Amino acid sequence: MLLGTRGRAYFTGVLYTVSMAKPSSRKEISFPPFVIRVDTLSGLTQQNGDLRTRSEERLNEAENAGNETRAEQLRSHIFLGVGRTIEQYVQRHGNTTAIEAHFEDWIFGDYWKKHQRHLAEETRNNLLSGEYVWEEYTHAKGLQDWAAPAIQYCRALEKEMNRRIHDYYPKYKYYADVAQKGFSREMTLGFLIMMYHLQAEDPRPSHAPKYQEDIAKAKADWRLCEEIVKAANGNIADFATIIQRMDREGISKKRNLLAHGESVSQSDAQILRTVIIGQKEKPGILIWLAENLEPKKE
Q: Which of 56, 59, 122, 231 is the most exposed place for a label (fewest CB within 10 A)?
């Protein structure tokens, strides 16, 4: 599903059934289908709220039990539903030409879609639809929940994190060029931050066996990051600075909270928007990724 710059594509009510199971021996987790059918801004806000509250109980159970795999599958399902709802709404009602011109002229330059390291089309669609809704929200009165555009910003960032980092060395496989297996987990903002902190730990025997194992995995994952950054002629210290910024701004926690049913304040959504997209005087993480890391060829 593509987002045209003039919003000419139209959808009637579309029923999507999504399975977020990973290619492993784990038991498949099924989800109820979600229906995308919105015609007004209030309908968009209501639909997105419903999508997030529908899995609230199961998400809380997974998080409280420390089952991050299941929790992330639930979050991914929620974000996909919210994202499709936003994109459908914008395709029906929006004209993103001016937004695209701003992104290309003032934020990303040639990295928008001309440079060989340009953003993926899916990333651009996420940013355009998210920013369109952001602008509509700023003119709406009494709006309390800003989760919708913030989710699109996070989806854009994670898309680029995956195609520029994780896709080089996916899980479940041994890679001869680095003499080790691929990343130990799927790529999320939280995984990057956790990996960065754990890789600096000393795996001394005084640690519990599980913690020693986690440290070993993080060190192996960090070696993969070093190889990827090196191959793109980048600086691993600069990459570490990007992760530190994400950690300092609480990006992972704010991202995870977006999947819950509680309202998200404009200020929290603004933090995600600024850190990911950036401002003229302070570039965001996305432009750093585009400038410094090569996307994996498909």
A: 231
Average pLDDT over residues 234-259: 96
Q: State mean pLDDT over 75-88.
A: 94
Amino acid at 169: Y
Q: Which residue has the higher pLDDT, 3 or 8?
A: 3
Q: How far is CA 31 from CA 72, 77, 89, 290, in A?
A: 13, 8, 23, 34
3 state DSSP class of 67: coil
Distance, in Å, from the CA atom of 49 to the CA atom of 73, rounded to the nearest integer, reads 18
Say how far apart CA 184 and CA 202 lie, in whole Å.
19
* pLDDT exceeds cutoff 80 at 206: no
First to last CA, the chain: 18
The strand pairing partners of 282, in sequence order, are 279
Matching residue, tokens 């395709």 = 91
The answer to whether residues 77 and 282 touch, using CB atoms and an 8 Å cutoff, is no
Distance CA 21, CA 30 (A): 8
Closest among 26, 25, 16, 20 to 59, alpha carbons compared? 20
Both tokens of residue 266? 């404009």
* Placement of tokens 């200020």 in the chain: 267
Find out whether 7 and 86 touch, Cβ atoms under 8 Å.
Answer: no
C-beta of residue 123 within 8 angstroms of C-beta of residue 159: yes
Helix (H, G, I), strand (E, B) or coil at 175: strand
Mapped onto helix, strand or coil, the DSSP state of residue 251 is: helix
Q: What is the pLDDT of residues 82-112, one digit of tens each?
A: 999 999 999 988 899 999 999 999 999 999 9
Q: Which residues pair with 181 in a beta bridge?
A: 174
Residues 6+ apart with CB under 8 A from 107: 277, 278, 280, 284, 287
- Asked if residue 140 lies in contact with residue 41, where contact means CB atoms within 8 angstroms, the answer is yes
Whether 32 and 54 have beta carbons less than 8 Å apart is answered as yes
